Amino acid sequence: MANLPYPPLIIAVAAIAILIFLPRVRRIVFVLLRIAFTIAVAGIAVFALALLINNETIYEQPGIEARAVRFLTVDQAATSEKGLGSAACRWPGEQRAPAAQPSPKPGEEGDVYPELMQRGYPGLPRQRLFEVAERTVNSLGGWKVVNADPRRAVLECIYSSRILGWQDQVRITVTPRNEIEICSRADPARSGSASWLRYFPGDLGANAAHIKQFYETLEPQMDQVYKEEQERENAKKPGGAR
Could you check whether the bond before residue 150 is cis, i.e. omega within 30 degrees of 0? Predict the structure, then answer.
């Protein structure tokens, strides 16, 4: 007896026959395809709009695939010395940090996100840097400082999105080495709420965007601070400005 055709071929032939000879089934299938296409287009539009609002892009390092996966599956971001996407957003008082993204092994080029590289500002008193960081947060729309601890040089903030009102938690720490660590994550309560958001694991790049926005706003302020410090030092030198 001759061997039967490969099972997938049989299924394909049967499906085509059903579509040809059963008009009602064909109409149902086409309706479902149109619905699926509409949902896919809407999803792509929402994703693109979110990237635009968050001032993020999928074309920068480490590339389209890694960024798309991260933005759709991870709802946190944290700075690190190398800007690793796998760095976990750790929150004091919690037993464990939220899970970081499934990504290449730490240190691999495919896991580096430039906006997540931790930045340092040497040569300034730690308290001065903390004050500049707090002033920066207060200048940002949608940001609010909910707890400022000058002794530990820690700012705990809430970011509320302007359109959907989603809230993210941001923790900014000035380290003894005058580096600014930032940890940003979606509100943990979101996953346990009745909202449809609990079914969506990603943040569409929002938390990485918070870090990027803070650093970009901080930089010109730090340039001004360093300029003032230099002028102060010059004034102390013999023959300097008085």
Answer: no
- Give the CB-side neighbour count of residue 112, counting CA atoms within 13 A: 9
**Contact status, residue 171 vs residue 157, Cβ threshold 8 Å:** yes
- The string of pLDDT tens digits covering residues 65-117 is 888 888 889 999 999 999 999 998 888 776 555 555 445 444 456 789 999 99
DSSP state of 110: G
Alpha carbon distance 77, 90 (integer Å)? 10
Instruction: Quote the pTM value.
Output: 0.75
What pLDDT is stored for residue 34 in this prediction? Answer: 81
Measured distance CA(91)–CA(170) in Å, rounded: 10
Report the DSSP pairing between strands 76-78 and 179-186: antiparallel
Exposure on the CB side of residue 147, measured as CA atoms within 13 A:
10
pLDDT by residue (tens digit) across 20-70? 777 787 788 777 878 877 776 666 666 666 666 666 777 788 888 888 888
Quote the tokens at residue 5.
């055709």
- Selection from 130, 129, 113 nearest residue 121 by Cα: 129
Please give the Cα distance from 88 to 65 (Å, whole number): 20
Phi, psi of 104, deg, nearest 5: -60, 160
How far is it, in rounded angstroms, from Cα 108 to Cα 137? 32
| Residue linked to tokens 């008082």 | 93
